[in-house]
Amino acid sequence: MAPEVVTIIENRYKVLRQIRLLQPVGRRVLAEVMQSTERIIRREVEFLREQQLIDSNRAGMFVTQDGENMIEAFHPFWKEVGGISLLETEAASRLSVRKVLIVPGDADESEWTKDDMARQAAGEMSRILTGDMVIAVAGGSSVARMAQHVQPMEAIHITLVPARGALGEEVDLESNTVTARMARNMEAAHRLLHLPDILEEETLRNIQRDPGISGVLDLIQRARVLVHGIGDAEEMSHRRGLSEGIVHILKEKNAVSEVFGYYFNDVGEMVYRMNTVGMQMEHVHTLDTILAIAGGKSKARAILSYIRNRDNYVLVTDEAAVREMFALLESRE
């Protein structure tokens, strides 16, 4: 295929993909986001409309079902042409994880990059689910976005459970809320865990006598797939409302990342753990697949501190985070 033809196809794919991220959207906004002119955008939009890949109403342009199918079919080719496929392979090798999925951009600067990661994560989950299966779902903004993009799973029976109790944070980001929303969109069964995330051991032992709660905790232990984000240690210590004493300990031990109540330093050592309810880190390595979603250049250090040498992990991230992780690795060599 001639280079100029590849360029034309790639540009039209980028326009179609951007419309999906922004829809409904007008030409002027689309031109601004893509840093192009309205004249060029008008030409590309008319071509896409003629091919019935997009349509429009008073609110703006949107992608048709044919357009959605085209995006999915063309995605592997676009990643190959844009060098993303090579970057994914290199990232998986350097991080020693099963697979890395990368979207363009920087989640620190773009809400659309965050949505793109959420779509990729939702698509990946649909590919890894088989038969009767329990999926544990953590809370947080990245997984909450993913919940909006999952699709109904036909012909397989799956049950979703929260990976942990309630943090007392924004309700929409709680594990229970995210699990219920994801289950609804997947048309799947689910159970909820109506407990705070942190409990004293004696309190937890007493509560576990309740058959409803013990049943959910048992399902969490039976999960074969886990979905979670990766947090910055300092940010998460504040969100969890930790005491000044514990925050001081985390700083003293150079905690960098946090994953459902466990804190890790730069070299991946666990330096602190909360007495959390639900999924335990000791159980994670036994799972079939863990899907981790985290992006943004500012979070690269946190991602790198946790994700390395976890061979049952699929990481969904963005290009900015990956390139910053590479820079961090090279600075340590």
SSE run: HHHEEHHEHEHEHEHHEEHHEEEHEHEH
Mean of all residue-level pLDDT scores: 90
End-to-end Cα distance: 40 Å
**Could you give the count of β-strands?**
13
Main features:
about 325 residues, seven-stranded parallel sheet, Arc Repressor Mutant, subunit A, Rossmann fold, 13 strands, four-stranded antiparallel sheet, alpha/beta, 2 domains
Question: What would a concise description of this structure say?
Answer:
The mean pLDDT is 90. The protein is an alpha/beta fold and 333 residues long. The protein has 15 helices and 13 strands.
Mind explaining what this structure looks like?
The protein is an alpha/beta fold and 333 residues long. The protein folds into two domains: 3-76, Winged helix-like DNA-binding domain superfamily/Winged helix DNA-binding domain (Arc Repressor Mutant, subunit A), CATH 1.10.10.10; 83-332, Rossmann fold, CATH 3.40.50.1360. It is 50% helix and 17% strand. The protein contains 15 helices and 13 strands. The chain has helices at 3-22, 27-33, 38-50, 65-81, 84-95, 111-128, 141-147, 175-186, 201-207, 211-222, 233-239, 244-252, 281-284, 300-307, 319-332; strands spanning 54-57, 60-63, 97-103, 133-137, 158-162, 189-190, 225-229, 231-232, 257-259, 262-264, 270-273, 289-293, 310-318. It has a seven-stranded parallel sheet with strand order 3-13-12-7-4-5-6, with helices on both faces. The protein has a four-stranded antiparallel sheet with strand order 8-9-10-11. α2 packs across α3 (38-50). The two termini are 40 Å apart. 38% of the residues are buried.
